[in-house]
Amino acid sequence: MRLKLPLSITILLVTLVTVLAMVNWDIYQKEQQLAHGKIVRLALAPVDPRSLMQGDYMSLNYAIAAPLSSLVEMETGQGLLQVGLDHNLVASLVSVDEEAGTDALKQIALNQGDTKATDEIINIQYRVRHNQVKFASNAYFFEEGQAKRYEAAKYGQFRVNELGALLLESLLDKDFKPL
After folding, report:
1. Is 46 exposed, middle or buried (0-12, 13-18, 19+ CB in 10 A)?
2. CA 116, CA 152: separation in Å to the nearest integer?
3. Could you tell me if 102 and 120 lie in one domain?
4. What is the structure's pLDDT at 109?
5. What secondary structure letter does DSSP report for 44?
6. Across residues 81-86, what is the average pLDDT?
7. Closest Cα partner for 151 from 46, 63, 42, 53?
8. For residue 38, which of 153, 141, 138, 124 has the smallest C-alpha distance?
9. Which of 10, 57, 135, 164 could, after both became Cys, cross-link 123 (CB 3.0–4.6 A)?
């Protein structure tokens, strides 16, 4: 004897399985990015580590956003940056592609007197929202009462995939040690 489910229950089960498969695929991709993605470190701009509504967290702002904001149209948009990585894997801006797929790249003159050598150039994604340049993560949540520990954060360490998508891995101090 075969069990026959009503059509509505069958549709519900198929939808549920599809949604769960998509969520698990996304989790798997992010785990792979954390395990195998290229390490990129972005210097942090000053932040305030407290929110009464959300608990303790650090609002992340990146130093690389300041020169970028003068090169891109500050309306809603997105694109790719080409960044150079120094020997500590800290990113510095090389060029900007405002819309992925366009031919026009805005080149940044690298400071000839700069002692940091660029070992590698990679792409990272950015977006502009509310006249601000944003990267993968604009906040780092942590356990209540741990604000002192994260006040020493100077860098965000990310993993970047082949498409330039960033995934925040950890915050680092001035000596590149995880907090």
Report:
1. exposed
2. 23
3. yes
4. 42
5. B
6. 91
7. 46
8. 124
9. 164
Per-residue pLDDT, 1: 60
**How many domains is the chain built from?**
2
> Do 31 and 111 lie in a common domain?
no
Structural domain span for residue 65: 38-172
Q: How many CA atoms lie within 13 A of 23 on its CB side?
A: 6
Task: Count CB atoms within 10 A of the CB of residue 58.
Answer: 24
Which residue type is seen at 27?
I
Q: For 21, what's the count of Cα atoms within 13 Å in the CB-facing half-sphere?
A: 6
Q: Are 96 and 79 in contact (CB under 8 A)?
A: yes
126: region left, alpha or beta (phi > 0 left; psi from -120 to 50 alpha): beta
* Predicted confidence (pLDDT) at residue 160 exceeds the cutoff of 90: yes
- Rounded alpha-carbon distances, angstroms, from residue 31 to 22, 109, 125, 177, 178: 14, 36, 19, 22, 19
Taking the model in full, what pTM does it have?
Answer: 0.71
* 177 closest CA partner among 142, 141, 148, 153: 153
